[in-house]
Design brief:
The chain has five helices and eight strands. By secondary structure, the chain is α+β, with helices and mostly antiparallel strands. The protein has one domain: Class II aldolase/adducin N-terminal domain (L-fuculose-1-phosphate Aldolase, 3-Layer(aba) Sandwich). The chain has an eight-stranded mixed sheet with strand order 3-2-1-4-8-7-6-5, sandwiched between helices. Strand 1 and strand 2 form a beta hairpin. The structure holds the ligand CSCCC(=O)C(=O)COP(=O)(O)O and zinc ion. The site of zinc ion (ZN) has 6 residues, from loops. The site of the ligand CSCCC(=O)C(=O)COP(=O)(O)O has 12 residues, from loops.
C-alpha cells in the first residue's frame, strides 16, 4: 500500500471512529445495528474505494478492528479477516448514484415509525419545517418527500432499487421498519443530514399523532 493510501485510510478510519462515538452516545446503534462509511481517494462510478464498519460489531465500543476498506463492488481491498457490513451493497449503490463522500445508516424508533406510517404513500412527507434547510433547501415552506424502500431480507434486491429511488435534493432513503441511510459530500455533511432526518422524522410522527 502506498504511503498516501495508508494516510488516507488512517484518516478515514479516525473520522469513522469519531462519528461512531458521537452517534453511539445518542443511542443510535441499538443491538449492533447501523453502519457507517467514508469514501477514500478519487471517485469514478466504475472505480472507487471506501472505508466501512465491519459487520456485527457493537458500534458503541471502539476496537482496533472496527473498519476495513472495500471497493466499488463491496469487496475488501486488502487481506483481512473482517467482514464488511452486511449492507455494504447499499452503500455501493448510493456512492455510484450520488458521488457522495460519506454515508451513515442508523436504526431509530422514530425513523421506523415514520416509515411505517407512510409506507403506502411510498415516501415520508415533510413540509415547512425549518430544519429542511440543513439539506441546503432554502425556499419558504419547502416540501420534501423522503423515499421509502421495502426491507427485503436479500440485500442485493434492495440495492438494485436504490438508484431509481434517490430524489436529487433529498440526501437520504428509508428502508421500511429498518432505518435511514443519509449521505453528504463529506462526514460533516452526512452527519448534519442524518441529524436533520432524525429530527424531522420525530416531528412528523408526533405531528401526525397530535392531529388525530
Ligand atoms: C441487528 S442489526 C441487523 C443488521 C442491520 O440492519 C445493520 O444495520 C447492521 O448490520 P452490519 O452488518 O452493518 O453490522
Ligand atoms: Zn441496518
Amino acid at each position: 500500500m502506498s504511503n498516501l493510501r495508508l494516510e488516507e485510510k488512517q484518516q478515514a478510519f479516525a473520522e469513522l471512529k469519531e462519528i461512531k462515538t458521537i452517534l453511539a452516545a445518542k443511542g443510535w446503534f441499538p443491538a449492533t445495528s447501523g453502519n457507517l462509511s467514508i469514501r477514500v481517494g478519487d471517485f469514478a462510478p466504475e472505480q472507487f474505494t471506501f472505508a466501512i464498519t465491519a459487520s456485527g460489531k457493537d458500534k458503541s465500543v471502539n476496537t482496533p478492528s472496527d473498519f476495513l476498506l472495500v471497493d466499488q463492488d463491496g469487496k475488501p481491498t486488502d487481506a483481512t479477516s473482517l467482514k464488511p457490513s452486511a449492507e455494504t451493497l447499499i452503500h455501493c449503490e448510493i456512492y455510484k448514484a450520488t458521488g457522495c463522500g460519506a454515508i451513515f445508516h442508523v436504526h431509530t424508533v422514530f425513523n421506523n415509525l415514520a416509515s411505517e406510517l407512510f409506507w403506502e404513500r411510498g415516501s415520508i412527507p415533510v413540509e415547512g419545517v425549518e430544519l429542511i434547510k440543513a439539506f441546503n433547501i432554502w425556499e419558504e415552506d419547502a416540501q420534501i418527500e423522503v423515499p421509502i424502500l421495502p426491507n427485503y431480507a436479500d440485500i442485493p434486491r434492495i440495492a438494485e432499487l436504490v438508484q431509481g429511488a434517490i430524489v436529487p435534493r433529498v440526501p437520504g432513503i428509508m428502508l421500511r421498519k429498518h432505518g435511514i441511510y443519509a449521505w453528504g459530500a463529506n462526514a460533516f455533511e452526512a452527519k448534519r443530514n442524518l441529524e436533520a432526518f432524525e429530527y424531522l422524522f420525530e416531528y412528523v410522527y408526533r405531528w401526525e399523532l397530535l392531529k388525530k
